[in-house]
Amino acid sequence: MQEPMPDAPGDAFAGFGPVGRALVWLCKLGSVLGGLIFVALVNMSIVSIVGRKLAATPVPGDLELMQMGSAVGAAAFFAYCHLTRNDVKVDFFTQNWNPRTVAWLDAFGSLLVALFGVLITWRTWIGAMNLKEYGETSAILGWPVWVAQVLMVPGFALLAAAGFYMCFHFITHVGKGAVK
């Protein structure tokens, strides 16, 4: 699938200012890094499975690595998903409503996403610092668990920023009749 060029017809980011475009770039970077994490996890799983079947030598701690890596990788996708309006929406009832009303509802929904992003960023950071304080490590590898949790914080912070930006975007474009 090819993404439309900026300012081209059908551009998902039409109407975004310089702050919005910078946020899109950061969110794309986060998504690419999250994707690379998942590619590495798939490769590690293949090596572990083949090693287990052929030589009885799986990758030590493969499940721990999968759990920690999946959490970090998944956290990196949420912000870009929200900026491109590809998160889950139930618009069955609102599809025939006035575009201004729908834009206000979208602004409210984005505000809720932003507030959730702030909450989960804060609580993930606090949880990671508690894990660090208590010195919790993974069972097999003995890696500090707090590191994986801290690596989720930037993705959640970007989600909060994306939510606030989209709320602002919807509100400022309500007077124009429709939001792209």
UniProtKB/TrEMBL annotation:
Family, similarity comment: Belongs to the TRAP transporter small permease family.
Localization in the cell: Cell inner membrane; Cell membrane
Keywords: Cell inner membrane, Cell membrane, Membrane, Transmembrane, Transmembrane helix, Transport
Complexes and interactors: The complex comprises the extracytoplasmic solute receptor protein and the two transmembrane proteins.
Keyword Cell inner membrane: yes
Membrane topology: Multi-pass membrane protein
Transmembrane segments: 29-50, 65-83, 104-126, 146-171
Domain Tripartite ATP-independent periplasmic transporters DctQ component: 45-166
One Pfam family per UniProt: DctQ
Signal sequence segment: none
Protein name: TRAP transporter small permease protein
InterPro entries: DctQ (IPR055348)
Chief subcellular location: membrane
Role this protein plays: Part of the tripartite ATP-independent periplasmic (TRAP) transport system.
Keyword Cell membrane: yes
